[in-house]
TrEMBL record:
Name of the featured protein: Transcription elongation factor GreA
Native organism: Hirschia baltica (strain ATCC 49814 / DSM 5838 / IFAM 1418)
Keyword set includes 4Fe-4S: no
Gene: greA
InterPro entries: GreA/GreB_C_sf (IPR036953), TF_GreA/GreB_CS (IPR018151), Tscrpt_elong_fac_GreA (IPR006359), Tscrpt_elong_fac_GreA/B (IPR028624), Tscrpt_elong_fac_GreA/B_C (IPR001437), Tscrpt_elong_fac_GreA/B_fam (IPR023459), Tscrpt_elong_fac_GreA/B_N (IPR022691), Tscrpt_elong_fac_GreA/B_N_sf (IPR036805)
GO aspect biological process, one term: DNA-templated transcription elongation
Gene Ontology molecular-function annotations: DNA binding; RNA polymerase binding; translation elongation factor activity
Length: 157
């Protein structure tokens, strides 16, 4: 069984979503199915079919979250340190072509959100940076061609 690395915040977010699905979304869709059944012929009842489809999505997500939480390897990033980039590091890089600086925190897949500056451990950029130090160059194969980034700073926040 493959472990899934995630921060404590990411783990809590998945637990919160699971709790919401089990205590709010699931009962709501069960109620919607019951109401739709009262409308008669189920073969031509769009409300019933929509509610059943929604139920299927909710149950699938519950199964997925249960599995991920069971395999979670929660890493306390506040206790990490060092010069080498690894999971939990906050890294400032500069694109050597455009001179644009960006700061990213390396997190688990479910936590990744580029708008918040969080990239997945399995992303090409994160994979290129793992093991590197401040001043090193990370080369990333991108659809538009290879990109190079200089690592300006590594923090543990």
């Amino acid at each position: 069984m493959q472990r899934i690395p995630m921060t404590a915040q990411g783990h809590q977010a998945l637990e919160d979503e699971l709790k919401h699905l089990k205590t709010v979304a699931r009962p709501e869709v069960i109620q919607a199915i019951a109401v739709a059944r009262e409308h008669g012929d189920l073969s031509e009842n769009a409300e019933y079919h929509a509610a059943k489809e929604s139920q299927s999505h909710i149950e699938g997500r519950i199964i997925e979250l249960d599995s991920k939480l069971a395999r979670a390897q929660v890493i306390d990033t506040s206790k990490l340190s060092g010069d080498n980039i690894k999971f939990g590091a906050t890294v400032t890089v500069v694109d050597e072509d455009t001179e644009e600086e960006a700061t990213y925190k390396i997190v688990g897949e479910d936590e990744a959100n580029i708008a918040d500056g969080k990239i997945s451990l399995s992303s090409p950029l994160a994979r290129a940076m793992i093991g590197k130090e401040e001043g090193d160059i990370a080369e990333v194969s991108a659809p538009g061609g290879a990109k190079t980034y200089e690592i300006l700073d590594v923090k543990w926040i």
